[in-house]
Structures are given as structure tokens and as C-alpha cells.
Amino acid sequence: MTRVITTGNFKGGVGKTTNAVMFSYTLSKMNLKTLLIDFDPQANATDLLLTTKKNVFHKSVHFQESLFDAIKQEDLNRSLIPIKDNLSLLPSFDTLQEYEDFLSANFDDDYTKDHYFDKLLQPVKNAYDFVIIDVPPQLNKFTDSALVASDYVVIILQTQERSLKGAEKYVQHLLQIHDDYNLNVELLGVLPVLQQNGSELDLDVINDAIKSFSSDNLFDTKIKQMARLKRFDRTGITDNPRDINDVKVHRIYQQAVDELIDRIQIMEK
């Protein structure tokens, strides 16, 4: 059974894309077939995974069609790029900015617009155990299309006030679209990303998040600031068992993904 998960927050720069990519990479290491959909015209997730394929796995990148090209052709398989064992990518490009105009030009009502991407994803997703969708941090058709196509949402919460406000607004919108379309999508949890490890501000924001979302909805795992994550943007995702910084990064994401899977199992019971 395929699980489709969107990572979200209406505040940019909170680590949403980084966590979407690291979730996908970690799931693939667990022999779970995983697809990452870069549904953001900025294409940061695409850049990171293509850099990884080129620099780490030393494989040439064949970028024949972008995600938007495949959407127009109504065949997402045309855009699929294998990155490593068990990990594939639907790559973004700046042409994806035209997605909303494309929907407006071809469909009259919001229901059809918001369900169009889900229709395209149906014949593709069954080849995977997990599909992770990365979206822009705005309320738009990218967000709505991803939520309609998803089973679960993980809110990425950087421990700062604006990120908390963005997370609260995201959950409000999730509840609204859930009711509007009678969706099965559920909030899987809120993943705290510490701005400064263990600072008073971090603790204050986490306590406020508990008041907003309840303690049960916060992941026990917390992603600390790690310079190695920033380095991955330049080098690709390295996974050297003799490099303590690589080991720390992959250890914490293994914990996060283990908890993610546990939460899914609990909800599906």
C-alpha cells in the first residue's frame, strides 16, 4: 500500500525541502521504494538530488522532461529520474510556475483543478511504498493539489515564532480542505527543527506548539541544527560511515523516519 506524504508550512526557510529529501533518502535506505515529487518551481529538492546523483553516485543525469512537461502530457512517468536504489524523482524546473495558469486555462472549477494532479499520480504511485511531496510555502494550487493527493501531512516547525504561525495557518487550511472535499488526508505530526539547539526560544516555541497542536501531535524526534545538512546542498548527500558528521545526520533522520512509520501504523490501526 502506497502512502503519500506532503511536508508543509506556510513559512519559507524552515527546512521543509531538506526534510522532504532526507525522509525520502532514508526511506530508500530501508529498502522501501520511494518517490520524491518536487512540486516547487524553485526546484531546490531537484537540485539536491541531482547533485547527489552526480557527485556521490557518479552517474550522469538525464533530464529529458520536467514535471510540468509531464503534467501537460498527462503522463508523469515521462519525467521520472532514478537517483539511487529505491529512490526516484519527479523533477521541478522553473516552467512549473505555469502550473496554476495551466489549470485555469483548462478547467473551470476549483474541485477539478485541485484533483487534477491526484488523477495523474494514481497510475504512478502504486509502484512505490512512499511518495513524498515538497511544495512551496504558500497557499496556492500547488499546496491544494498536493493535499488532495496525500494521505498524510507532516508539518515542519522551525522553532521560531513566524514558523509557528505558518504551521498553525497550514493546519487550519488542511482542516478546511479536508472538510471541503471530504478528504482522507490526516495530520501525521509536527516535526520540530531546532533553530539553536536547546535555547530558551526553542523551548518556548515548542511549548506553544504543544498548546496549539497537543503533545501527541509533536514528533518526539527533534532535528537539531547541523552544518552537514547545509553542506549537502553543495556536495550532495554523503553517507560515509567513517565520517562522524554524516553518521549524526543519518542517525537522527533514521529516528525521525522510524517515528513517522510508527505514527502511520498507529493511525491505520
Automatic annotation (TrEMBL):
It comes from the Bacteria. It holds the Pfam family AAA_31. The keyword Nucleus does not apply. The keyword Translocase does not apply. Keywords: Plasmid. InterPro entries: AAA_dom, DNA_Partitioning_ATPase, P-loop_NTPase. SUPFAM superfamilies: P-loop containing nucleoside triphosphate hydrolases. Residues 3-185 form the AAA domain. This is Replication-associated protein.
